[in-house]
Write a structure and sequence with these properties.
single chain, 117 residues, mainly alpha, 6 helices, 65% helix, extended
């Protein structure tokens, strides 16, 4: 009973923290990424990748090479992998990872990364 009350109080506290500051630790990161996304059409892929890596380092978000490649490509062209299955397969082969191929295929095709998995 006491444990349940503790969890309920903790959940309320966390919900309030999120309501007070929805961006939380990403307050500086999100605007920087949005700015880079706006500039992306005028930049080369390498410039986008370098700037994205720099933004991640500034905000303690070190990306793996695979995810850095994936996200920087998608900044310049959201359909880079989705419209070209060969590119998606090449990404899977070039950056093998601990996740299953099904999970990684979903990442590259959808352009989303699940940190919890």
């Amino acid at each position: 009973m006491e444990r349940e009350r503790f969890h309920e109080a903790e959940n309320r506290r966390i919900a309030q923290e999120i309501a007070d500051d929805p961006e939380g630790p990403f307050k500086g990161y999100n605007p920087a990424v949005r700015t880079l996304r706006k500039q992306a059409p005028d930049l080369s892929h390498q410039e986008i990748k370098t700037q994205f890596q720099h933004i991640g380092a500034e905000h303690d978000m070190p990306w793996s090479d695979a995810h850095l490649e994936l996200l920087s490509r998608l900044m310049s062209d959201e359909r880079y992998y989705r419209d070209h299955p060969i590119r998606a397969i090449w990404w899977l082969i070039r950056y093998p990872g601990p996740r299953t191929y099904r999970r990684r295929w979903a990442e590259v095709r959808a352009g989303t990364i699940n940190f919890a998995a």
